[in-house]
Design a protein that fits this description.
The protein is mainly alpha-helical. The chain has a single domain, classed as Up-down Bundle (Ferritin). It is built from five helices and no strands. Helix 1 runs antiparallel to helix 2 and helix 1 packs antiparallel against helix 4. The chain is elongated and about 50 Å long.
Length: about 150
């Protein structure tokens, strides 16, 4: 039962990370600032690596994985597209949309860490990934403060 629960937790996190990867790629395509574009692409790359790490763990638990972006990610990307269209690729609006996504990701990872079924190894991996998400959010917030 714990294995099944852990696979479910990991698959939810994978979906969230994949949403983030696609969202950051989309944000990079819609922003005009080259430094911000580079930052977004770096975060998207990090999310890809995080997805692979969690997929490896799901595979170790005996289940195959296939990453697809989830419905929340599609909604979030549509919102970035809409904001970009309305605001003329306004970097501040894109940053705000990314911060909204990062807040949701942090909450999802914090909730996962509360699960009693996690093995110490999974707890360590998810904790490290949460730290990476928090660092990305700090970078985006810092960029927001510079651009205002």
């Amino acid at each position: 039962m714990e294995t099944k629960k852990n696979i479910e937790i990991l698959n939810e996190l994978i979906s969230f990370l994949e949403d983030g990867r696609v969202g950051y790629t989309n944000a990079a395509e819609n922003c005009e600032d080259s430094k911000l574009k580079t930052e977004f692409l770096g975060i998207a790359r990090d999310r890809s690596l995080m997805v692979v790490q969690l997929q490896d763990e799901v595979n170790r638990l005996g289940k195959s994985t296939d990453a697809t972006d989830g419905p929340l990610g599609a909604i979030h990307r549509a919102w970035i597209d809409f904001k970009s269209m309305v605001t003329g690729h306004d970097n501040e609006a894109i940053i705000e949309a990314c911060l909204t996504g990062e807040n949701a990701a942090q909450e999802k990872f914090k909730d996962a860490l509360k699960e009693k079924s996690l093995t110490p190894e999974l707890f360590a991996i998810i904790s490290a990934q949460l730290l990476s998400i928090e660092k990305a959010m700090a970078k985006i917030k810092a960029y927001k403060n510079i651009s205002i």
